[in-house]
Design goal:
Distance between the termini: 34 Å
Number of strands: 5
Number of domains: 1
Helix content: 40-55%
CATH architecture: 3-Layer(aba) Sandwich
Bound molecules: 1,3,4-trihydroxy-5-OXO-cyclohexanecarboxylic acid
CATH class: Alpha Beta
Number of helices: 5
Structural class: alpha/beta
CATH topology: Rossmann fold
Length: 164
Amino acid sequence: MKVVVIQGPNLNMLGHREQNIYGPMKLEDIHNQMKSFAEQNGVEIEFFQSNLEGEIVDKLQECLGEANGVILNAAAYTHTSIAIRDAIAAIQIPVVEVHLSNIYQREEFRHKSLIAPVCAGQITGFGPFSYHMAMIAITQIMSEMKARYEAEQAQQAQQALQSK
Ligand code: DQA
């Protein structure tokens, strides 16, 4: 099982940018914590950060056939990007939307997430712990999908045996 973590614009500045909102932790430290969780749970993990909308769309498309789940903090593009929303809808891989801050407690323009309707769920407002919760959520979703797939395979094998 593989999960791809996609980080949007300005998240490379964590630890420096608006510490009163995002806290002191660097992106690298958050990723190290996620890596430990992934290792403990036998999940392969890849990290990607970009400040460019098109690169995020490209990365989502690349996940097709490569990843079983995605964790996405689209940052400011959350509130503006129809292209990222369409890419999520196109790949049909479960995507967990993440935010460090509680977007509903902030400026009104942040209250609307264009990507939420096509994501499996949204975690917002728990600081770096939001990513840990997202790891738990995506691992659970991927396990359920795997179990469903294996049950279908077993059923098909059973049917094939019976029809002989
Ligand atoms: C953010 C919230 C967005 O509104 C903002 O543009 C970000 C970070 C968060 O993680 O809290 O860059 O996605």
